[in-house]
DNA sequence: TATTGTTATACTCTATAACTATA
DNA sequence: TATAGTTATAGAGTATAACAATA
């Protein structure tokens, strides 16, 4: 067998294209709402939401970076913006002197609260309106395993031929 | 009823988050592959693919812009890059003196062909590997109506609190 | 030595508004 | 007037590599 089949069947193509377009349109609408309602980019919202979800309201930089897929420097940049806006604080981690702990502030939670209703409204209208309860369940059941698979398979270097540190 | 319910149930949240993360990871992997294999951004690939699909290999600028959601100027920028790289040509439309027709070149088709196998391989491995044939069918059946709904509902101005049809 | 995080830098991409030309 | 497309501009965001400090 010559490795993986070099094509997608029509059904796969349909699913793939629909997935791409649905997410693209949804993302676009959400970004607009977040910007208008709370002057937040999507990434900033994700960071705030992640902090807001945490029991302590805090995360290490590395944890945040892992969750958002970005480079460290991109996270530093965004954390800097959020800090300047008073939505988070940064402090040295207690257990590891190298680390930085990011914590959401009251203003951050407030901002999150201000933005959330509109966010949910859009997701509800755009994504879920045409789906029945059973549909939503089915969608989650389909996508959650895919997500787990994606998280597991490529540690972060889904590169076909990359190899680091050849020392 | 106070308009739309201000929350998502746990199943909806699961579906929403999985959708976002799956697409984000997939997109990231695909972008990397396109860049490495053919020095193309995702947008550029989309444009080329759209032109390659067209019977004539051509599209009007406006048609391309509509499909890629972007602003006109962003499209002009990308078309300029593709033209500079010799992957497309731009010429005045025949029927409408205002219009510009973009056409994919042989080099453009070649580039597309060079990039496609790796693209498909990634989608196959990341998205479809954990899904059965029936799953894929179900996924398409769920997402395609959502896509149609999204295309139809908000003409492009999903304003946060505007209520349309107040007539 | 490896890891955490920051900084400097360069680059890509996008949107807005002003502008030209045609319908 | 409205539409098609371009241009100028300005801003947001990202990645890379070099760096400092701690493990």
From TrEMBL, chains A, B:
This is MarR family transcriptional regulator. Residues 12-148 form the HTH marR-type domain. InterPro entries: HTH_MarR-typ, MarR/SlyA-like, WH-like_DNA-bd_sf, WH_DNA-bd_sf. It comes from Solirubrobacter deserti. SMART domains: HTH_MARR. It comes from the Bacteria.
């Amino acid at each position: 067998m010559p490795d993986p089949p070099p094509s997608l069947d029509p059904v796969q193509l349909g699913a793939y294209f629909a997935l791409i377009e649905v997410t693209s349109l949804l993302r676009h609408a959400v970004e607009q709402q977040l910007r208008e309602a709370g002057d937040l980019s999507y990434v900033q919202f994700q960071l705030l939401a992640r902090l807001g979800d945490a029991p302590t309201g805090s995360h290490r930089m590395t944890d945040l970076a892992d969750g958002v897929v970005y480079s460290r420097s991109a996270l530093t940049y965004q954390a800097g913006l959020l800090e300047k806006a008073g939505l988070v604080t940064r402090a040295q981690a207690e257990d590891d002197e190298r680390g930085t702990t990011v914590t959401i502030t009251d203003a951050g939670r407030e901002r999150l609260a201000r933005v959330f209703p509109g966010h949910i409204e859009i997701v509800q209208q755009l994504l879920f309106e045409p789906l029945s309860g059973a549909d939503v369940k089915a969608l989650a059941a389909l996508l959650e395993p895919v997500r787990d698979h994606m998280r597991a398979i490529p540690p972060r270097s889904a590169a076909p031929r990359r190899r680091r540190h050849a020392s």
